[in-house]
TrEMBL record:
Organism: Paracoccus salipaludis
Keyword hit for Nucleotide-binding: yes
PROSITE patterns tied to this protein: ABC_TRANSPORTER_1, ABC_TRANSPORTER_2
GO CC, any one term: plasma membrane
Domain of life: Bacteria
Xref: SMART domains: AAA (SM00382)
ABC transporter domain span: 2-250
Pfam families cross-referenced by the UniProt entry: ABC_tran, BCA_ABC_TP_C
Entry keyword set: ATP-binding, Nucleotide-binding, Transport
GO molecular function: ATP binding; ATP hydrolysis activity
Family annotation (InterPro entries): AAA+_ATPase, ABC_AA/LPS_Transport, ABC_transporter-like_ATP-bd, ABC_transporter-like_CS, BCA_ABC_TP_C, P-loop_NTPase
Protein name in UniProt: ABC transporter ATP-binding protein
Length: 250
């Protein structure tokens, strides 16, 4: 689904991404690991149109998407999760889901402005969908809670939930498990697996927790110093000398 060719992103003279090439297979849950400062988040930001590349190309389903802005990528079904914006924290969890930008490719719930009944119908549909998502994520009990009051893990689930309100093809998750307790990490993993199996979402996941990566991801791509160091199954990666060096050598 995604091909990255010889991608560079420099900051002044510093090469945060330094000639990375990789592929993300349709239907996979691909892991992206590497030491702090390896360039993982920068790579995500370039793929997701948040940062322009210094050079190199990104293709999605064979189409050149290099440097397209996030809203255009969103319409193509490419999503990157972000931490919840401040202004959303005083809204309820359900309202947060209902605020997701209108759908893609003519499917927009907001397309038709004819008559109040129509709008009321659409709002009802949106609400029903939000409730389905909350149920899927096992957080129905906090539907009315202010999003700002959620635990770290519940906020991560809400981020995933916002991806589920639209028809995503590929979702990029940056450190989805950071600061999340074991139980919720399991719920997040289950949600990712179900979205992958039942809805056909492809994922690319940055995560430090190797248990999580090992259970979820195949293949796993290892970055270090802006480059792709290795790629393979989690078990294969753990035995790779260069990978061990990159982690333990600093
Ligand atoms: P990772 O996500 O793998 O920990 P990052 O992509 O966040 O790594 O960062 C890679 C390197 O690029 C780091 O050394 C970081 O300090 C640097 N970097 C990231 N963003 C910027 C920026 N906006 N300006 C300057 N340096 C940056
Ligand atoms: Mg990072």
């Amino acid at each position: 689904m995604i091909e990255v060719h010889d991608l560079h992103r420099h900051f002044g003279g510093f090469r945060a991404v330094d000639g990375a090439s990789l592929q993300i297979r349709t239907g996979s849950i691909t892991g992206l690991i590497g030491p702090n400062g390896a360039g993982k988040s920068t790579l995500f930001n370039v793929i997701a149109g948040v940062l322009p590349p210094t050079s190199g190309r990104v293709l999605m389903d064979g189409e050149d998407i290099t440097g397209l802005p996030p809203h255009e990528l969103f319409h193509k079904g490419l999503l990157r999760t972000f931490q919840m914006a401040h202004e959303f924290s005083s809204m309820s969890v359900r309202e947060n889901l209902m605020m997701v930008p209108p759908g893609q490719s003519g499917e927009s719930l907001w397309n038709t402005w004819f008559g109040r009944k129509r709008i009321a119908d659409q709002e009802r549909a949106l609400r029903a969908r939000a409730d389905e998502v909350l149920d899927f994520l096992t957080i129905s009990h906090v539907a009315e809670e202010k999003a700002g009051n959620l635990s770290g893990g519940q906020k991560k689930l809400l981020e995933l939930g916002r991806c589920m309100m639209v028809e995503a093809k590929i979702v990029f998750l940056d450190e989805v498990g950071a600061g999340v307790n074991r139980t919720l990490l399991g719920t997040i993993a289950d949600a990712i697996i179900r979205l992958n199996k039942e809805r056909g979402y492809t994922f690319c996941v940055i995560e430090h927790d190797m248990d999580f990566i090992g259970k979820l991801c195949d293949p796993v791509i290892v970055m270090a110093e802006g480059k792709v160091l290795a790629q393979g199954s989690a078990a294969h990666i753990m035995e790779n000398e260069a990978v061990i060096e990159a982690y333990l050598g600093r």
